[in-house]
């Protein structure tokens, strides 16, 4: 099966929220992405709803439910939100106060493990597929399998931020081993965080990885690629 792409459109909402305006509308962004071949639309509804909010989730699920991949923390509040709007899949991610973006995979302390397993079961009972965002370590992959997840999303943040080629090659090997172990344990394997047009291909080529979730680099490129069109339209009007 061809490698799939989930496009994270959080930063469309970031631009909207800079003015608390009604545009750019994430629903229009989702439509455009799906029209040109994106396989999933990824949105992260954070506890503080600083970019995407519950209303966005509701509208996106109403139009494109099975394509919506919701990222959220493991709180009961988020569980209730997901069960209410029923996206096709949910990725449980850790969230730290004041972080700029997600900083790594889930930490499976005994308390977290129990909570993540409960949430995984509750979502699956309503037909929602569950992904767990994990660091590429054997321990995390085994914990995710024990939680009963359908999918693991391997965190590529460290790989993306590697200081040099040698470090990047080592981190790529970690991802390769993690992917193989996850497949062996019957998990579907996704990867994401910090991937861009320069660093994505080695990860895309890893055995077992079936979907890449990418946001910041795509939305950044879209802003520059779309700028000539937007300026021309305004000039024409004037
Ligand atoms: N996957 C997960 C679990 C994430 O938290 C994020 C960031 O929201 C992404 C993928 C996309 O990362 P980026 O925006 O750096 O491509």
Question: Topology, pairings included?
Answer:
Blueprint: E1 4-8, H1 10-18, H2 26-35, E2 40-44, H3 54-64, E3 68-72, H4 76-85, E4 89-92, H5 110-125, E5 129-134, H6 138-146, E6 151-155, H7 157-160, H8 165-184, E7 188-192, H9 200-204, E8 209-214, H10 216-237
Helix pairs in contact: 6-8
The structure holds pyridoxine-5'-phosphate (PXP).
CATH fold-level name: TIM Barrel
CA(first)-CA(last) distance: 49 Å
Level-2 CATH architecture? Alpha-Beta Barrel
Structural class of the secondary elements?
alpha/beta
**SSE pattern, N- to C-terminal:** EHHEHEHEHEHEHHEHEH
Number of strands: 8
Which CATH top level class fits?
Answer: Alpha Beta
Count of discrete alpha- or pi-helical segments spanning 4 or more residues:
10
Order of strands across the widest beta sheet? Answer: 1-2-3-4-5-6-7-8
């Amino acid at each position: 099966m061809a490698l799939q792409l989930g496009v994270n459109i959080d930063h469309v909402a970031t631009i909207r929220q800079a003015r608390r305006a009604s545009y750019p509308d994430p629903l229009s962004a989702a439509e455009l992405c799906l029209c040109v071949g994106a396989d999933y639309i990824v949105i992260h509804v954070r506890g503080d709803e600083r970019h995407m909010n519950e209303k966005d989730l509701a509208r996106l699920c109403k139009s494109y439910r099975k394509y919506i991949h919701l990222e959220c923390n493991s709180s009961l509040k988020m569980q209730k939100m997901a069960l209410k709007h029923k996206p096709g899949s949910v990725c449980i991610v850790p969230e730290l106060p004041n972080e700029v973006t997600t900083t790594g995979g889930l930490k499976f302390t005994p308390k977290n493990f129990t909570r993540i397993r409960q949430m995984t079961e509750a979502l699956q009972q309503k037909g929602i597929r569950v992904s767990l965002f994990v660091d590429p370590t054997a321990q995390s992959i085994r914990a995710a399998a024990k939680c009963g997840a359908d999918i693991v999303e391997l965190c590529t943040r460290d790989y993306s931020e590697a200081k040099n080629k040698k470090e990047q090659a080592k981190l790529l090997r970690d991802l390769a081993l993690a992917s193989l172990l996850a497949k062996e344990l019957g998990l579907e394997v996704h990867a994401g965080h910090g991937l861009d047009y320069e660093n994505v291909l080695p990860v895309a080529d890893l055995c077992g990885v079936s979907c890449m979730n990418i946001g910041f680099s795509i939305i950044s490129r879209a802003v520059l690629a779309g700028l000539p069109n937007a300026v021309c339209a305004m000039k024409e009007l004037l």
